[in-house]
Amino acid sequence: MTAAGPLDAEMRTTWYWSAMNDAVAIYGFELPLVEEVSLKAASAAGRRYKEGEDLGEDTPTRLWVRKGRESEGKRRLPHAFKAGDYVILSSKAADVLGGFDLGAARLSPIQLLKHDHATPFEGDWLLCTPANLKKGFDPDHTSPDACISYNDPNWPVFGTLCSGHAVDDEIALRPSVLSGPDIWLDPSIGWGGLFVSGVLADALRRHRVVGKTKLARCRLVTIH
């Protein structure tokens, strides 16, 4: 019998990626919709995105630093972070994702502008729309420290504090998530339940494009 190699082991793991709700990785950007149309319209677009919807023609093409956060314009942007409601990747990070099965996920060019709405941040940036949905979260075998609940105790949701302190093996998933695309959202968790396959997590770390975000290995639990 042949022993499993490192690649085989990575293919049997899944990882929680804090890119959608880690407080440390959130930068003060907003959609032009906030000023050009309304905050309500911008919030609606963000909600659709966080629920895994491909926004199609409504996919943002520009984000700018919002009022009151002008100092953000002086920061050097990492390879992966959250700008407002959206996951943003550098071209280097996007190239890494592009080598995997993205399913319905999309990488769309986006302009990141400073508070004057005209000066671009250095580099090429892409908006990552996960779009794939896999329902595999197992709340019964997940550590209470890994999630919090809003309103409905039957609806576990990862909070920014929890995601910021995510550690290996706290989050439990069903093995069914091993099949399909290498990046997905779990609709049973709510906003922020972003996951990647073991091979993609390994590539993100190896190419040093995790940025300000975190990766936490998940436990796979089989229910008999």
Question: Can you describe what's shown?
Answer:
19% of the residues lie in helices and 23% in strands. It contains 6 helices and 15 strands. A hairpin with an 8-residue loop joins strand 12 (183-185) and strand 13. The longest helix has 12 residues, at 39-50. It is globular.
List the helices and strands and how they pair.
Layout: H1 6-11, E1 14-17, E2 26-27, E3 29-30, H2 33-36, H3 39-50, E4 62-65, E5 80-83, E6 86-90, H4 91-97, E7 106-113, E8 125-129, E9 148-149, E10 156-157, H5 160-164, E11 172-173, E12 183-185, E13 194-197, H6 198-206, E14 215-217, E15 219-220
Parallel strand pairs: 2-5, 4-7, 11-15
Antiparallel strand pairs: 1-13, 1-14, 3-4, 5-6, 6-8, 7-8, 9-10, 12-13
User: Which stretches are low in confidence, meaning pLDDT under 50 for 5 or more residues running?
Assistant: 1-7
- What is the chain-wise order of helices and strands? HEEEHHEEEHEEEEHEEEHEE
Strand order of the largest sheet: 2-5-6-8-7-4-3
Number of helical segments with 4 or more residues: 6
Q: Give the percentage of residues in beta strands.
A: 15-25%
Global Rg: 18 Å
Please count the beta strands (DSSP E, at least 2 residues each). 15
Largest sheet: 7 strands, mixed
- Our measurement of the CA-to-CA distance between the termini, rounded to an integer number of angstroms, reads 26 Å
